[in-house]
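QA checklist item 7 of 12: single-chain prediction sanity check.
[x] sequence parsed
[x] length recorded as 171
[x] structure emitted
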Amino acid sequence: MRQPFIVRFFSATPKAGWQALAIFTAFALVLVPLLHLAVPETSIFHVSSYAITLIGKIMCFAIVGVAMDLIWGYAGILSLGHGLFFALGGYAFGMYLMRQIGRDGSYQSDLPDFMVFLDWKQLPWYWNGSDSIWWAAVLVVIVPALVALVFGFLLFARASRACTFPSSHRP
């Protein structure tokens, strides 16, 4: 069986490569936000808000790509759940972001714009607490984990019987 890219990368990268990776990581996680927050917008070294959001999107998709490579390439399991887990985490954090818009939206309401458009009068119960970054961070981790627990139970608790989910098939 052919080894996945990430395993080949870890075993074939020399010490200088790891040092370069550490420098890049420090650059991406420390220097870029500092250049955005501390440097004036008129400076050539200022990192724009657009670049910050673009880097964040690239990093999110890279995490999903590495996860897919590990689960499919290394373990040989076709996992159709990664998209679901990624979407649930994104929805949970999107709830926080929609609440942060506040009255700056198109409808100048305390409700998110799509709820005003749909003529909702109040937030649903599961949106309670979504105005806190810490609650959103907990939801981003807990909601996909609970869904994974349910699917894992359905797949592996009945190991003696044949599973019908595509993710349970190993080539």
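[x] summary fact logged: The chain has two domains: 1-76, 78-171.
[ ] second reviewer sign-off
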